Amino acid sequence: MADVRGPILSRGLNTAIAEPVRRNPSCVVLSPLRPRLFWPVAFAAVVTVGVAGAALPALAQTQQKFPSKPIRLVVAFTAGGSTDTIARMIGQKMSESWGQSVVVDNRGGAGGTLAASAVAKAAPDGHTLLLPGGNFVINPVLQPNLPYDPFKDFAGVTQLGFGTQVLSVAPALGVKSVEDLIALAKAQPGKIIFGSPPVGAGTHLNGARFNLAAGIRVVTVAFKGGQEALIQTLGGRTHYAISGLAVALPFIKDGKLLALAVTTPQRSPVLPEVPTLAETLPEFRRSETSIGLLAPAKTPPPILNQISKEVARILDLPAIKEQLQGIGIVPVPTTPEEYDKIFRAQIEILSKLVRDAGLRPK
């Protein structure tokens, strides 16, 4: 891969974009003038999407109070998953609309605390946003010594929607249905391995709920991300995984994975032949964690509202709707006030799941 950092930075790239590059030397920056996509192998990537602010009329720029500089969208996952894909979709459209670059800053690891901590410490001016995972709402229970306070250090911006997750196995395992998997696990208690993302991620929580509803005792092995967990199932080192549809779909279509069920209340239009988990286990209820945007606490309400309305506009675009459906995302945008109540309520609700599933703080 060619080193693109030098020539791009030499063109006078804004220091707000250059700083993440300095912190992460292995990252890749994409120039708006050269819209090619490179996927970094490092665990952190910073991607610039957008158009030059100079394309806007000068008068509009002087009247526009926000944004006044590039926006940093911090994602609590490594590049390549559905959450990262959503960030890039929204970032591109925001940039086109506002005439400012949007930097997608992938900070996976530590159960999402690296990303959340970075945003909690950022200036409350709307130029730094957090796209967390489901672990954000459960970390206060699993990790009592967090470097931030989820109630005091963040403000809701908007809910983005709910993701479709799929329970899958490698064909070599020899199971053809959810019933088969449950029977196998009950015949070998404590020997079947569930490949999971970090403890507290949405897919991990749905895995815990599936195990409880099925009445099976398995070994849960957590990996850094959903993609890593799925690779272990593909290689036969774990027996099953629950992952985002966007990550699993290519392997399902290639026949390398067998989809047994989806976690959503209704079947996915992308995989209409695959049943829901509730069809086999009526008592199964997916973990009600949604995808959303957060900002540092004390971000002015007018800015929160401006971002929320822009995201709602983007999610309503036909092309975006089609892309989201393709990765199993159901868009459900909200106001900042609504999402602020949602993510706080989710923290309280999931505390019970932690106790019921036997999870313990690290």
Report on this model:
This protein has helices spanning 5-9, 15-23, 58-63, 82-98, 113-120, 139-142, 178-187, 202-214, 226-234, 245-253, 277-280, 301-315, 318-326, 336-357, and strands at residues 44-49, 71-75, 102-107, 128-131, 154-163, 165-169, 193-196, 219-222, 240-244, 258-262, 291-296, 329-331. By secondary structure, it is of the alpha/beta class. The protein has a five-stranded mixed sheet with strand order 8-7-9-6-10. The chain has 14 helices and twelve strands. The protein has two domains: 5-162 and 289-354, 3-Layer(aba) Sandwich (D-Maltodextrin-Binding Protein, domain 2), CATH 3.40.190; 165-287, Periplasmic binding protein-like II (D-Maltodextrin-Binding Protein, domain 2), CATH 3.40.190.10. The model is unreliable at 1-16 and 24-63 (pLDDT under 50). Helix 8 (202-214) links the parallel strand 7 (193-196) and strand 8 (219-222).
